[in-house]
Amino acid sequence: MTDAAVTVGKPLRKKPKAGPRRIILHAFLFLVALLWISPVLWAIFTAMRPYADTAAHGYVSWPHSFNFDNFRNAYTQADLPHYFLNSIIVALPAIFLILLFSSAVAFVVSRYSYWFNIPLLIFFLAANLLPQQVILQPLYRLYLQIPLPTWVSDSGYLYDSYVGLILINVAFQTGFCTFVLANYMKTIPKSLSEAARVDGAGVLRQYFQIMLPLSKPAIAALATLEFTFIYNDFLWPLILIQNGSKRPITAALNNLQGEFFTDNNLLAAGALMTAIPTLIVFVVLQKHFVNGLTLGATKE
Amino acid sequence: MVAVPVFLTGALIWFPTVSSILLSFTNWDGIGGLHTIHWIGTTNYRQIATIYPAFWPAFRHNFYWLAALAFVGTPFGMFLAYQLDKNLRGSRLYQSVFYIPVVIAPAIIGLITELVLSPQQGLISSLFADPRHGHVIDWLGNPSINLWAVLVFACWRHASYVMILYLAGLKALDPTLREAAAIDGATESQAFFRVVLPALKPINIVLVVITVIEALRAFDIVYIINHGRNGLELLSVLITDNIIGEASRIGYGSAIAVVLLTISIIPIVIFVWNSFQEADA
After folding, report:
1. pLDDT tens, position by position, B75-85
2. Could B209 and A129 be called an inter-chain contact, meaning their C-beta atoms sit closer than 8 Å?
3. How big is the A-B interface in CB pairs under 8 Å?
C-alpha cells in the first residue's frame, strides 16, 4: 500500500510515507489547530447561548438552549449597521485612492530611470514602516488647524471628518502598495510598453491599457489586503474622530464595549459580527489575501 | 498623479515626524499659538526618565512584548510553516485555521482575550473551578500577571502572521536543496539550521523587522482591554494618553514618540537597505 502511495506522488516532491513520524506530526498539527481556533470557537459558543443559561449553569456547561438572540440584540441595540456603513464610507474611497496613487508611482519608477526613483521608493516605504504613534501628536494638532467647508466635514475641520480619516489611511498605506507594485511591475517586460510607445500610445495609455491590466493579480491582492487593514484599523479613528457615532466599526468597539459590559454573551456576539466581513473576505479571497501579504515579503 | 501622493505622505507622515522631534524639545501646551513655543532643551527627556512614573514600566513592557514575539511567536510561526511545508495531506485545511488570527482585527483579539480570560465568565477560570463560588485568578486584573496573559494572545496572532510569510518563502525555495541535504544524511534539524535557514536570508530579515515593528506598534489589544493601565502600560498608550487623556503633556508625548522613532529606525534602515541593495543587483 505504501509503495502505491509513493508512486502516485507528485514527481517533484516525494509523497510522504505513512510512518509513525507522519502520524505524530498529524496528531501534533491537529492539536495545535484545535488550540489555535479554540478562542474563536469559545466566542461562538458564548455568543450562541442566552445570558440566563450561562448565568444559571456556568459558562463551561452543556448548553440548554442555543440561538441567535445575542446576535440580533447586539445588531439592533448597538446599531451595528450604522458603524458598518461608516467603515465602508472610509474604506472604499481610501482603497481606490491608494491603488490609483501607488500604481501611478510604481508605473513611473518601473518604466523610467530617473535619479529619484530609489529615494522616492524609500520616502514611501519608510513612511509605512513607522510606528503610527510617532506622528500621532502633531497629526492631531495639524488636523485641528486645517479648516474644511462644512458640506465636507460638519466639524468644520479635518479633525473629526471622514475626509481626514481617508487621507491618513491613503498617506500611510500608499507606501506599502507602491513598494509591492513597483516590484511587480519590474517583472513585466519593458518591451511591452516600448512596443506600445512605438505604436504611438501616450504615457497615459501605456499606464491604463497596458500596465494596469497586466498588474491585475497584484492589484487584486492588495485591494483585499488593504480592505482588511483599513477595516481592522483601530488607532486613527480613536484619535482623529471625536464623535463616537462617526467612528468605523472596529474603533467603535471601544465605546460599544461599555454598553455590553456585564454581558459577555452579547459582547461575544458583537465582536464576532464585527469580524464577519473580514472573515468573508478571507474565505472568498484567501488566495489574494495571502498573495498580498507575501508579495511584499518575498520578491523574485 | 505622482505629486499628489508625495504631497500627502510628506504632509501627513514626514512633516509630523519632524514636528514630533522638534516639539519634544519644547514646552508648548497646545493651547496658545505657535509663538508661545519655547525651546527647553532636553528637559522633557530628563523628566520622563525621572519624574514620569509610567515611563519605565511602559518601556519595560514593550521590551517584554518584543522578547515574547521574538522568542515565542516568531519561532513558533516558523516551526509551523516548516511542518506545513512537508507536503502533508490536509495541509490547506491546517493553513486556513492558522490564518484566522491574522484576519481578525487586533482590537477583536483583545475582546476575545477578555472572553477567554474573564474571571467570572471566561473559559480558563471556568474550566478549573466553578467561578460562582470559590477562588478565581483574575488574569487580566492582576498587574503582576496580566501582561503575560495578554502576550499569549499577542503571540497567537503574531505566530500566524509569521507562518504565512515563512510558508511563502519555503514554497519558493528550491526543493532539491532539502533533498540533497537528506541524501547527504543530514538530520531534520541539521537540514533546517544549516540549509533552509541560511537559504532564506531575505525573508529572515523581513521577519526580524516585522517582529520589532509589531512590538513597538502594540496598542489595540491592551487599549481595548483596559485602556493600557494597571500593568498593561505601553509606550504607545502613553503617547495616546498625552493626546486625549486628562493630563496631556505635548512635550512628554513627543519625547516618547522620539524614543519609539529612535528604536524603530534600526529595523527600518535594515529593511530598506536590504530591499534596495537587492534591487540594484
Report:
1. 999 999 999 98
2. yes
3. 290
